[in-house]
Design goal:
Radius of gyration: 19 Å
Mean pLDDT: 88
Helix content: 40-55%
Largest sheet: 7 strands, mixed
Number of strands: 7
Low-confidence stretches: 283-305
Distance between the termini: 22 Å
Shape: globular
CATH architecture of the largest domain: 3-Layer(aba) Sandwich
Strand order of the largest sheet: 3-2-1-4-5-7-6
């Protein structure tokens, strides 16, 4: 059953008040309970367009996304610390409560990547915003891109230290996965070396920062390279920032996929256009391309079933 817009906004607002009044967002019974309620409320497919809500709701949504991002970061550090205490952390990833979601999301992204990649397997991939628990990179490296080198970028040095500890005991991953502490806005020439760049959902927690990061990638990625990024759709836009076609200046949008199961993030794949020009407005061609490629989600859903 599709929940009414007013009901969702009211319930999300109530949860926002409770979450924002918490003394800490570190994993705890109260934190886990409130965020679980929020996720269960926002996950079912819903036609609500959260970007069109009144200004007061937009301000609440913006603050809630930041709280979700902060809580997610603290949860990842919590579990990365626990995993890092094992001799072989890779054997214990199932203790992370959302591990199955990452397995599904990495498979989804790999299938989408395969549809648009050339026959050659990507030799170098960058993951921007990898965090202390870089599950997407690890899942892709272990199960799908077995010969690819992964450069993981994060602004948090502690997160990178924790992440590198997770793969240090694995003879294969430790040779193919590297962690760099850097603000991606300061990384330029290196971006030309990658066949594929992943942009994590929490890089750019508001519209302006997200667009700024995408513009930077458009100026510095190699022509023809692929950008994979995560967005949100419907009520899931209360949890994560939404990226639309107009935000992808300098890229050709190839496909958009909106999951309808417990995988929350939408997946967008785009190709860096020739030249370094970044158009200042969204062209009708981009809109048409995005609209046509929305049809592809049905094919992907069948493949994943």
């Amino acid at each position: 059953m599709v929940l009414q817009k007013d009901y969702i906004v009211e319930k999300v607002s109530e949860l926002y008040v409770k979450i924002s009044s918490l003394g800490s967002l570190e994993p705890s019974k109260d934190v886990d309970m409130l965020f679980t309620q929020l996720v269960l409320l926002c996950t079912p497919p819903n036609p609500i367009d959260v970007t069109q809500l009144p200004k007061s709701n937009q301000e609440m949504r913006s603050k809630l996304i930041r709280l979700c991002g902060e809580a997610e970061g603290l949860m990842e550090k919590h579990y990365a610390t626990i995993l890092g205490s094992f001799d072989n952390p890779l054997h214990h990833f199932d203790i992370f409560p959302y591990f199955t979601n990452y397995i599904k999301l990495s498979l989804l992204e790999y299938n989408i990547l395969n549809q648009h990649c050339s026959t050659q397997v990507p030799s170098r991939v960058a993951f921007i915003g990898s965090g202390p628990l870089p599950l997407t990179s690890i899942c892709l490296a272990m199960h799908h891109l077995n010969s690819t080198t992964f450069d993981n970028y994060d602004i948090d040095a502690e997160a990178n230290t924790m992440a590198s500890r997770l793969i240090a005991s694995d003879p294969d991953l430790s040779k193919r996965m590297f962690f760099h502490t850097a603000n991606i806005m300061n990384v330029t020439n290196e971006l030309k070396d990658y066949d594929v760049v992943f942009l994590a959902a929490l890089v750019g927690m508001n519209k302006e920062d997200k667009v700024q990061a995408i513009d930077h990638l458009a100026k510095n990625m190699a022509p023809g390279a692929l950008l994979m990024l995560r967005s949100a759709h419907g009520a899931r836009g209360f949890l994560y920032p939404i990226v639309d076609s107009c935000d992808l200046r300098g890229f050709e949008v190839l496909s958009v996929y909106h999951p309808t199961d417990e995988v929350i993030n939408s997946v967008v794949i785009a190709r860096k256009q020739q030249g370094n020009e970044v158009p200042s407005t969204c062209s009708s061609t981009e809109d048409e391309s995005l609209e046509m490629n929305m049809v592809e989600e049905f094919a992907y859903e069948q493949n994943l079933a």
